[in-house]
Amino acid sequence: MLLRLGVHQGGVLSTEQALIAGLTRRVLGRCRSDGTLLEVAFGLHRLPFVPWTFESAVWSGSLLGGAGARIGGLAAAHLVRLADEPPDVVDVLVPPGRRVARTDPRWRFLHERAGVRRAGGRGSPPRIDVEDTVLDLCDSGSELEVVGWVTAAVQRGLTTPERLRRRVEERHRLRHRSLVLGLVADVAQGAQSPLEMRYLRDVERPHGLPDGTRNRRNGSDYLTDVDYDPYALLVELDGRIGHEGKGRFRDMRRDNVHVVLGRPTLRYGHPDVLERPCLVALEVAGLLCRCGWSGVPTRCSRCPDVLDTYC
Prior knowledge:
Blueprint: H1 2-8, E1 12-14, H2 15-20, H3 25-33, E2 38-41, E3 44-46, H4 54-65, E4 70-72, H5 73-79, E5 90-94, E6 107-111, H6 130-140, H7 143-155, H8 161-170, H9 177-189, H10 194-204, E7 213-216, E8 224-228, E9 233-238, H11 246-260, E10 265-269, H12 270-275, H13 277-290
Helix pairs in contact: 5-6, 6-7, 6-8, 7-9, 8-9, 10-13
């Protein structure tokens, strides 16, 4: 039974778990002496036949933190598939007032403030929920990182814009609050990637372009990033992933199909949208005008003078 528990916990066991299972401290000492158990930290042991993995690290942090401890930060993000790479340091949230005297750099023990996050721990080992994980990362990240966390959480189906919005409103203090709420609204409108978000916020809205429909099929089997349907104009936004190698040929086939259907495509990447959003707006507005749009693009604070007379 004890071995089965250890395997389930990434190969680690606490002294308390071993004593509850019937082992004595003398037996534990013999197990450490003969190599049956390896000491990870005071009060924590490892089964030598189970490789040390990220799962071992998070279980160790949870056991060292004691009852009520929860995994947070990037470690929680990796556990729920929000972050692709595991962090080097595991954040462990412990109840207020608990003293955890640990100097091992593999774990960082943080005291929770009452009422900031939802109570209880989900999963095995216990971790904070997805919404609190996203907001914690947003609270400590840059504006660009905030865009990435919010869009990734929704795009990967880990949460919904409405659940995120409710959690933001429940928090009394949150860095980037206005940005997060704006992003939640943008994601609800259909933007599914950081690049799509930047196009919506830096190209389309500040320059008065018509509202495009996002991520839909219109006359073909291909999803389009932005569809200006009344004007038969498509905009595709290409991040690096998925648009190299075979992805490039898939993009070419999609563009050709749309041209045959009478729907030309403008295609932009990260450098265009992030570094030259006004020029992108200029090009999109020009083609929209040629396709029948009667509107006039507006200037933002960064626009070149040429935008005034383009249409």
